[in-house]
Amino acid sequence: MSDPLFQDVIRQRRSVRKFEPGRAVDRQALTRIVDCGRWAPSGANVQCWDFIVVDDARMRDAVTGVFQKQAQRLVDHAKGFPAVKKTYLANTVAIILVLGDPRWKVCFPQPTTKMDAEYRDNNEAIFLCSLGAAIQNIQLGVAAEGLTSAWLSGGGEELTNQELSQLLGYPEWMRAYGTIPIGFPATSQNRRYRRPVEQSLHWNGYQAKQYRTHEQVDFYESTLRPFAMYRDEELLESWDDRDEKLGKWDAAFTSSTSNPAGELQPEANFSAPRTAGQATKRRQKE
């Protein structure tokens, strides 16, 4: 039987970017939150992480300054991405950085035959999945304490990581894959968009009618993304402008069947945006 309290904690987790100023949390609570990350699973039980908790106001302001520059680089060099300013970090009670230590990848399965690429690629996946599990556990720990947080990935960018390394004193070859600002929410926030469980859950094999087509990915990237990222509605059916925003893609995003034809597609190149939409036009304009 599922624990309803645990289910509640999962659903209470939010990515919030508006915090109440002037609040504080004691180190006992912050230690409990980090301990949730410590109990995350990891490949070969290597626990390839370290956690830096920034709760000093001056150091928090310095970390905030690093991420403000990172946010401006997004504006300058990743035009069209719906980024937000990082000034809200100034009102956090603490900022947790999850460092990944790549040395521990040597403990994962190492190739002894010509299957070198297969094992090395999977070792990278094991490493990143282990860190992701720790980050998620920390966010659930934050929610269990009645606080809220966000997940910033910008610390994993090379230049941002260099600046954080110099500021916080960790080896530059480690990387801040997850940055988690913690605080008291300034406003209540509803749940963000989630795919219908009936669409993402496959019983006893992959169901082709639940496959999301290349064209659906294109539509999300080019048009729907900024609204799905930041609107406080779990169900797209609740949007007043649902018809305008979804158009012919309504059923693909709101029903159990995203691909009525039931046809799968060959792999395609999604290393860059492929189609024109609101975000693409903005990139071209700028």
How does this model look, in words?
With 286 residues, this protein is α+β, with helices and mostly antiparallel strands. It has two domains: 4-183, NADH Oxidase; 197-285, no CATH class. It is 42% helix and 8% strand. The chain has ten helices and four strands; from the N terminus they run H-H-E-H-E-H-E-H-E-H-H-H-H-H. The chain has a four-stranded antiparallel sheet, with helices on both faces. Helix 2 (27-38) packs antiparallel against helix 4 (116-144) and helix 3 runs antiparallel to helix 5 (158-168). It is globular and about 55 Å long. It starts with a helix and ends with a helix. The mean pLDDT is 87.
SSE layout:
Elements: H1 4-12, H2 27-38, E1 49-54, H3 57-77, E2 94-100, H4 116-144, E3 148-149, H5 158-168, E4 175-183, H6 197-200, H7 214-230, H8 242-246, H9 250-254, H10 278-285
Antiparallel strand pairs: 1-2, 2-4, 3-4
Helix pairs in contact: 2-4, 3-5
| Total beta strands | 4
Alpha plus pi helix count: 10
Q: Supply the helix-strand structural class.
A: alpha+beta
**What percent of the residues sit in helical stretches (DSSP H or I)?**
40-55%
Write the CATH architecture name of the largest domain.
Answer: 3-Layer(aba) Sandwich
In whole angstroms, the N-to-C terminal distance is 54 Å
Major sheet details: 4 strands, antiparallel
Total domain modules? 2
Radius of gyration equals 21 Å
Average pLDDT figure = 87
Low-confidence stretches: none
